[in-house]
Write a structure and sequence with these properties.
Elements (H helix, E strand, L loop, with lengths): L6 E7 L4 H15 L2 E4 L10 E2 L4 E3 H14 L6 E6 L3 E2 L8 E4 L4 E5 L5 H4 L7 H17 L18 H6 L6 H7 L12
Bound molecules: zinc ion (2 copies).
One zinc ion binds next to helix 6.
C-alpha cells in the first residue's frame, strides 16, 4: 500500500475540537511518515443525518469525503474527516470512526472520546491521545490493514473508550510489517 508520497488532509466537519487538529496532523505525519495538514472546515453533510437514529451515518460522510478527494486538484489526497457529532453504521450503536480504503478517506468522531460522557478516567491529554489512536486505526484501514486480534495493537477493534485506552498507540509487529514492507512508518509515541 502506498503511504510514501501520500498527502493527508484533515477536514474538520462542523464543530470538531479545532484546537486539537494541528497537533493531530503533526502526530499523524510522524506516525505515517507523510505530509499532513488541516484543511478548511466544512459543515457536516446534511445527507448523513438519520432522523430515525438521531445520529450521522459514517458511510454517507465517507461518500462525501471521497467526492471531495476526487475533485481536489493535484495528486489525490488522503482525507480524514474529524467531527464532534456522533456517528453510526447500520448494525452498530455507534462507531468511533470508519474508513473507505478504496476512496482513501476516513472519518472519526470525537463525540464518545470525551471522558465525561464515557464515564472513564479523564485528563487533558486523553482526548488528544484517543483521537490520535482512532485516527491511526482508521488510516491503518485506508492503507490496507484489517482488524487485529492483539488487544494491544492499534488495529484491534474498539467497542468502548476503555478498549481505546487499553490498546497501545502503535501497530503490533505483524501489522507494522504489513503496512510497510519498505519500513517508513514509525510507532507513535503516546502524548
Ligand atoms: Zn477498524
Ligand atoms: Zn496488529
Amino acid at each position: 500500500m502506498m503511504i510514501k508520497n501520500s498527502r493527508l488532509l484533515i477536514i474538520p466537519l462542523g464543530e470538531a475540537g479545532q484546537s486539537l487538529l494541528a497537533g493531530l496532523a503533526a502526530s499523524l505525519a510522524r506516525v505515517f511518515g507523510m505530509e499532513a495538514g488541516v484543511g478548511e472546515q466544512l459543515p457536516i453533510p446534511g445527507a448523513a443525518w438519520s432522523r430515525r437514529r438521531r445520529q450521522h451515518s459514517s458511510g454517507k460522510v465517507l461518500t462525501v469525503l471521497a467526492r471531495i478527494a476526487s475533485a481536489s486538484s493535484g495528486p489525490r489526497p488522503v482525507l480524514l474527516g474529524v467531527t464532534g457529532v456522533d456517528l453510526f453504521t447500520p448494525g452498530l450503536n455507534f462507531v468511533f470512526g470508519e474508513a473507505d480504503p478504496r476512496g482513501r478517506v476516513a472519518v472519526i468522531s470525537l463525540a464518545r472520546l470525551d471522558s465525561a460522557q464515557a464515564g472513564a478516567p479523564g485528563g487533558s491529554g486523553l482526548l488528544h491521545e484517543r483521537a490520535l489512536k482512532e485516527a491511526v486505526h482508521e488510516l491503518g484501514h485506508v492503507f490496507g490493514l484489517a482488524h487485529c486480534g492483539d488487544p494491544g495493537c492499534i488495529m484491534h477493534f474498539s467497542n468502548s473508550v476503555r478498549d481505546t485506552d487499553r490498546k497501545g498507540p502503535g501497530f503490533c509487529p505483524g501489522c507494522l510489517a504489513e503496512l510497510t514492507p519498505g519500513g517508513s512508518v514509525s510507532s507513535p509515541d503516546a502524548q
